[in-house]
Amino acid sequence: MQTDMIIAGVGGQGILTISAIIGEAVLQTDLRIKQSEVHGMAQRGGAVVSHLRINQYPPSTGLVPRHQADLLLGLEPLETIRHLDWLKPTGQIISSIDPIKNIPGYPELELLLNKLRLNKNSLLLKASELAAELNFKRGTNTLLLGAATYHLPLKATAVKNSLIKKFASQKDSILEKNLALFERGLQLAKQNADL
Amino acid sequence: MTERKLLLGDEAVAQAALDAGIGAAYSYPGTPSTEIMEYIMESEEADERQVHRKWSSNEKTAYEAALGHSYCGLRTMVSMKHVGLNVAADPFVNSAITGIDGGLVLIVADDPSMHSSQNEQDSRFYGEFAGIPVLEPADQQEAYDFTRNAFEISEKFSLPVLVRIVTRIAHTRADVKLAPPQPPANFSPNRQHNRYTLIPLNARKNYQLLTEKREKIRAAAESSRKNRRIAGRDSQLGIIAAGIGFGYLEEFANNGELPHPCLKISRYPLPRQKLRDFSERFEQLLILEDGAPLIEQFLQDAYPRKKLLGRIQGPLSLTGELTPETIKPALNLDNEEQDSQFQLPPRPPKLCPGCPHADSFDVVKEFLELNPKGRAFSDIGCYTLGYLAPYEAIHTCVDMGASITMAKGAADAGLHPSLALIGDSTFTHSGMTGLLDAVYESTNITVLILDNRTTAMTGGQTSIGADSLEDICRGIGVSPEHIHLLKPLATEKKKNLKLLVEESNYDGVSVLILRRACIKLR
User: CA-CA distance, B231 to B156, in Å (whole number)?
Assistant: First the structure.
């Protein structure tokens, strides 16, 4: 069974880092991965997307066809919506609700969130608020990664190991805060799925 | 157990070159090829083995250095983006005539759909044109394996080998199995001076030899496993899939079985006989190439009456990259799901908050408002974003270095004021010679070097001439009193504008260096 995932957001938000952490986690298993990303001009504050595919055989290419993604992880609500067409009808949305309004004509946030709520499989997270609760405002991505991990064919420990590797060179307190946020995200996704 | 590594296609190519025992890697940064050289630069094994690895001024100097390294018997890799090969075309084409010594592998990353480029030229044509072998991987594992093999092919035929990748190979990460590394060759400079001295007397003989090699490499492509048939379910249609086109076709495999029989193409020159043998078995053919229709054009010429599905006769577009969606109609598969129709504001890239270029553009924009007849010829880099709102301060972007030379040509035609806006790295890449042309004629142009101390657009690689810009301009002959160092800051705007007005009125070449480091520099 192949799991196809889209990670969407704005250049500079850390999409490539999240992708790399999941990629490293896959490498600890027998599963195979292809993950396609955007480099270059678009990384300058433009819309950025990463496609990620995990399977027991090498996925054919790194591009997820439209209407085929099992999971859409959005780091920014407008970018989540921009990529809704990649999601399959039964697919899961996990999205931050924190907007990045670096463009003219940014739509009213409530309109965007209502659009996302139309999908019954959507988990909308007040990422910055939740991260602030755990005293780590910069850790929103780890929270979202935790929530996404619940829907990936990976054990949470594999992703955690990958996180530990990623933050190995940093202070222990940074790693601990990241791990706490990861757990929080995982837990929120589980609660949401149990509803 | 073979080692498995998570690598971008670019990194797989780089690792393969290291494992093939290269003595040097040369490159100029350009999306989507940059990560090849970056990987080698950061590699510990490259460090231990003292593999030579520094950025070059441009793709031409990189290619020539690679040829010189190969001349000494050592394996060498040179990497660039597709338009970079235009810059390196002269040594590239002629190195097919000299031949090589140590294996010389050229990696070119094409950018179909122009994600970060000004065109989508297909480098396979360059391979056919120069008469050298081209390998085209379908995925990251093949990118690794083929690059390893490319060094052997290069040495076997004494020819450079081009490995053509595309953005979706270059910037897709996959777990790649590595093969045991090979030791580097010994230093042994070439002694056949007639091979590398292309005066007509030698060149005619070498060119004759190249035509003979062309037949040999074509025969090798005919018999290569890289060009092979793969069974498929329904023989109503035959598919010829090149490079990543094969990957997209695999998307529609069922339990590992392709929907139709396929001829997978990964090695050029075109294996014409193999293409004919395959094509003659089918009433209808679909050709999947991620680029211009090279194979398809050959088949159309060979079989004018055959039904060919592809980019020329449709249903595929003549432009843009292949995707799983675009090939669906050609496979008679419907898109069952409807796309949603809601309109969203686009989010194009933009200069970072605090970017020094923004302050430069504020000055240029106001200057152009004062001088509506003026034009700002610009160039390739982050500052090309100055074309977009809110700056709308530049009027051209064509190729590396064209700002200065186009400004010169326009001034020759009577345009005034004629500004050239060029980055520090682009200036040393291809701007210096154009500046000499202007100095030679004392053309009335004003050159603004937007010096942010780095090659920013591709991620902040060393700008190898940034520390000597004033010296370079003086050396080229710009009069010292018309070379100015400015700081692009809001607080300096008035002063900078005044100076720009003054210098634009000087009837000769002026250079304003607007120097402030990119905010992304650590």
Answer: 31
